Amino acid sequence: MNNKTETQGLISEYEQMSIEKDYYHEVRQLLEKSNNYEDHYLRCDTTTRELLTNLKHGYYYKKDGYGWNNGMYEFSSGGRRELDYYIINNRYILLFSGSIKIGLKLSVLSSYTATEFKQVGRIDKNFIKIGKRQRKCKLKNGKLMVIYDQPIMLFGQTYDDMDYRKEWHYGLLEYEGNNYGDTSTFYFVGEIIF
Q1: Residue pLDDT, tens place only, 42-96
Q2: Could you give the CA distance from residue 165 to residue 154 in angstroms, rounded to a whole number?
Q3: CB atoms within 10 A of CB 64
Q4: Dihedral through CA 109, CA 114, CA 116, CA 117, nearest 10?
Q5: Computed over its alpha carbons, how large is the radius of gyration of the chain?
């Protein structure tokens, strides 16, 4: 009986290693191919609802004018802008959980709410797991990053999470929105190497 338990433990450990390998390849491919990112600083006074909604949707609409675009202050015309990830506080790479197909199977070391992260401004180094091989990736902007072995969750409210309505038809509940306080899940998947 003890051997059976040990074997089950080895199988689940092997499966976890396989999931982490798949996660690494999926994140690396997404980041290496993408030009669609933005830099954002999250401070205590930053409102994150619109930022996180844009990342969840994968796009946003921008007005004509001067502003920061992929790290450069320049004039840009308005219109739809694609968005794959954020570089947060000039260091951390943040993705929407829906961007990573393998995300539901991942084991996660730690998590923050958007409010908690804004207060501390960084990820506690005790929560970061980087293996001996240091899985590196070069972004399209030329920056080098290391991908965490296990992502760190960020829970934040988007405008989609604020749909509290319930629709009843002929006495039957046909649509039930969210509950107050529901959030969406995002992942810190790595950080820029300086």
Answers
A1: 888 888 999 999 999 888 877 666 666 656 666 666 677 788 888 899 899 999 9
A2: 25
A3: 10
A4: 70
A5: 19
Q: How far apart are CA 111 and CA 151, in angstroms?
A: 9
Q: What is the pLDDT of residue 157?
A: 93
Q: Where are the alpha helices (DSSP H) in 47-123?
A: 49-57, 114-120
**In the chain, beta strands by DSSP E:** 37-40, 59-62, 65-69, 72-76, 79-82, 85-88, 92-96, 111-113, 136-138, 144-156, 166-169, 172-176, 184-192
CB neighbour class for 42 (10 Å; exposed up to 12, middle 13-18, buried from 19) = buried
| Cα 117 from Cα 94, distance rounded (Å) | 12
Chain centroid to Cα 135, Å, comes to: 18
With 0-12 / 13-18 / 19 or more C-beta atoms within 10 angstroms meaning exposed / middle / buried, residue 181 is exposed
Distances (CA, A) of 133 to 7, 22, 24, 124, 147: 26, 15, 12, 21, 11
β-sheet bridge partners, residue 72: 69
Task: Give yes or no for a contact between 189 and 102, defined as CB atoms under 8 angstroms apart.
Answer: no
